Amino acid sequence: MTALQLPPDRIAAGDRLCFYESLDSTMEEARRLFATGVSSPVWIVASEQSAARGRQGRVWTSPSGNLHVTLLLPTWTKLRDQPKLGFVAGVALARAAGQHLPAQVAAQLKWPNDLLVEGAKVSGLLLEGLGQGAAIAIGMGVNIVAHPPDTPYPTAHLRQFAPGLTADAVFSSLSICLAEELESFSEGAGFALTRQRWLARAAHLGKPIRIRQPEAVLEGTFVDIDADGRLKLQTANGPVLVDAGDVFPLDK
User: Which of 27, 41, 168, 252 gives the lowest tally of CB atoms within 10 Å of its CB?
Assistant: First the structure.
């Protein structure tokens, strides 16, 4: 497969943009590019994917017209801090989507980084470290023209709220927003500002939720996220810090 080098008029200076009509997965292409050696950020965009996956190896439906993108990012952060980049990307994604939605329609983030519109999931985000922390692959799939049926949670696509919206328009906004959020994260503000911006868009904050984990199901009130991005859950037995899990409103 040959990448088309598109004019970089909508990405940050110094970033590289690779576009493919079809790929197995933008995340897998990020792995392949990393193996060849990269020294600057690379955006990988595909019109279609044949073998995309989400968190925990779940299949991610990738029809033409939706946005399928991965940012391969040589990282400057300590290994323990790299998971926080998922929150950075989530904030950027919510900002980018919000630029194309009607004023009365809010883009929210479901912990840790799913994008919700009107309570329905329109995007997922996958973060993977490469080369023992030498680089991070940030994969994002955004439902623009279609969404999967038969999911355990409500799903939607952005054209339901913004008719005529295109994947190119969302990518243009996303590339700029993520560059801005990464700059804020790296220039002294660190996770504190990202955390503040994430909480301002948090879905279910202050409300009862259920967290499904492979080994347990937790219930309580979502009260905060801590300085490492862990969810603070107030349960009947006291506060609990949650590292991972699927969040659902408690009445669902």
Answer: 252
Residue 171 and residue 78 in contact, taking contact as beta carbons nearer than 8 Å: no
Q: Are 26 and 125 in contact (CB under 8 A)?
A: no
CA distance 176 to 114: 19
Half-sphere exposure of 182 (CA within 13 A, CB side): 22
**Cis preceding-peptide flag for 148 (omega within 30 of 0):** no
| 181 Cβ neighbours under 8 A, 6+ residues apart | 88, 89, 91, 92, 95, 194, 197
Q: Does residue 252 surpass a pLDDT of 60?
A: no
pLDDT in tens, 125-137: 999 999 988 999 9
For helices 190-199 and 167-184, give the axis angle rounded to 10 degrees.
140
DSSP state of 158: G
pTM of the model: 0.90
